[in-house]
């Protein structure tokens, strides 16, 4: 008695099928869904249309592409801003070299100390003392390096904002008619803060990793040429992926800066004219304008995050693959005495 009538069940099934597939049943529709899934999957994969940023905003894209600069010209301009305090940069690079050399030598002495610990004696104590000294040198010079690059970073941001503000004030009146207040304040705020990480973070890490990589590669080639070639192959692959990832992040950062400036402009206009907004009752319209730019900023930031996730995946995969190759090159099975012999 409680079971619904059969015709109602059939009607419910028909409505559910029509809601999900547009029509009920059919193998051809399933194949079409599979084709659409494959097409969407191709768009999401690297190189697909989902990663393209040209369609975000025509005006913002034009301004972003027009403001592009090479790395050499950008570094030369930044050097002109910190040239009067060049001693800070020189002290930072000197500390960087000393810390990198100490960190290159630490693994060798650590391995020597471990293998000589079984026998003890003067060799073990000598290696242990050298290891302690190198660790102290690495720690001290790493701290000095970070301090010097941090001071240079603050000097760069201070003088960049001063120069930009002076340049804005010296412009003609027609310039302020074309540019909005939100764009200008965004350049003084978020854009200068974005550039501030170049010396304090990017240049510091790039110089340190480059010096340590070259030193470790030379050490590996002297120690074992197969191991060195395997490492060179991995580094070459990572460099190619990093080049593609860096170009995409550079382009996405330009769009993010443009969208941030547009959102700040909308917010500043609405807040400065809040009385007019209240009189005409356009709060929802202003909120929609602001939310539109935030949605575009979210889309670009989401793609940046996904690109960084792909880069991290490639880095970890190649890193652990190199570790596996190191294990194959470092250990050799001797059939004569059935023992593992360590070559490195």
Automatic annotation (TrEMBL):
GO terms for molecular function: ABC-type oligopeptide transporter activity; ATP binding. InterPro entries: ABC1_TM_dom (IPR011527), ABC1_TM_sf (IPR036640), Type_1_exporter (IPR039421). It is found in: Membrane. One of its GO terms (cellular component) is membrane. Residues 90-326 form the ABC transmembrane type-1 domain. The chain crosses the membrane at residues 87-110, 130-156, 217-244. Gene3D superfamilies: ABC transporter type 1, transmembrane domain. It comes from the Eukaryota. PROSITE patterns: ABC_TM1F. Keywords: Membrane, Transmembrane, Transmembrane helix. It is a multi-pass membrane protein. Pfam families: ABC_membrane (PF00664). PANTHER family: ABC TRANSPORTER B FAMILY, ATP-DEPENDENT PERMEASE MDL1, MITOCHONDRIAL. This is ABC transmembrane type-1 domain-containing protein. It comes from Aegilops tauschii subsp. strangulata (Goatgrass).
């Amino acid at each position: 008695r409680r079971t619904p009538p059969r015709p109602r069940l059939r009607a419910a099934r028909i409505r559910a099928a029509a809601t999900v597939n547009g029509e009920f049943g059919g193998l051809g529709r399933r194949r079409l869904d599979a084709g659409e899934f494959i097409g969407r999957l191709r768009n999401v994969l690297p190189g697909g249309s989902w990663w393209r940023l040209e369609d975000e905003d025509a005006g913002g894209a034009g301004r972003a592409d027009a403001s592009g600069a090479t790395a050499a010209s950008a570094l030369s301009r930044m050097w002109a801003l910190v040239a009067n305090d060049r001693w800070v940069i020189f002290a930072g690079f000197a500390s960087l070299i000393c810390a990198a050399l100490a960190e290159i030598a630490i693994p060798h002495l650590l391995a020597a100390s471990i293998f000589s610990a079984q026998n003890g004696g003067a060799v073990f104590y000598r290696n242990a003392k050298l290891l302690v000294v190198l660790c102290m040198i690495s720690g001290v010079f790493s701290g000095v390096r970070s301090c010097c690059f941090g001071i240079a970073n603050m000097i760069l941001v201070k003088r960049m904002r001063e120069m930009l503000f002076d340049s804005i004030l010296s412009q003609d009146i027609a310039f302020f008619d074309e540019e909005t207040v939100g764009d200008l304040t965004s350049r003084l705020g978020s854009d200068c803060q974005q550039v501030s990480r170049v010396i304090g973070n990017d240049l510091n890490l790039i110089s340190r990793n480059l010096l340590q990589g070259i030193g470790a590669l030379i050490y590996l080639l002297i120690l074992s040429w197969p191991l060195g070639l395997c490492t060179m192959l991995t580094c070459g692959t990572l460099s190619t992926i990093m080049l593609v990832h860096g170009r995409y992040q550079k382009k996405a950062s330009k769009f993010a800066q443009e969208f941030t400036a547009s959102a700040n402009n909308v917010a500043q206009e609405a807040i400065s004219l809040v009385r007019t907004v209240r009189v005409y009752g356009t709060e929802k319209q202003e909120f929609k304008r602001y939310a539109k730019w935030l949605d575009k900023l979210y889309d670009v930031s989401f793609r940046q995050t996904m690109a960084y996730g792909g880069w991290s995946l490639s880095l970890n995969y190649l890193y652990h693959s190199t570790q596996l190759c190191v294990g194959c090159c470092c250990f050799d099975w001797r059939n004569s005495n059935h023992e593992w012999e360590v070559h490195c």
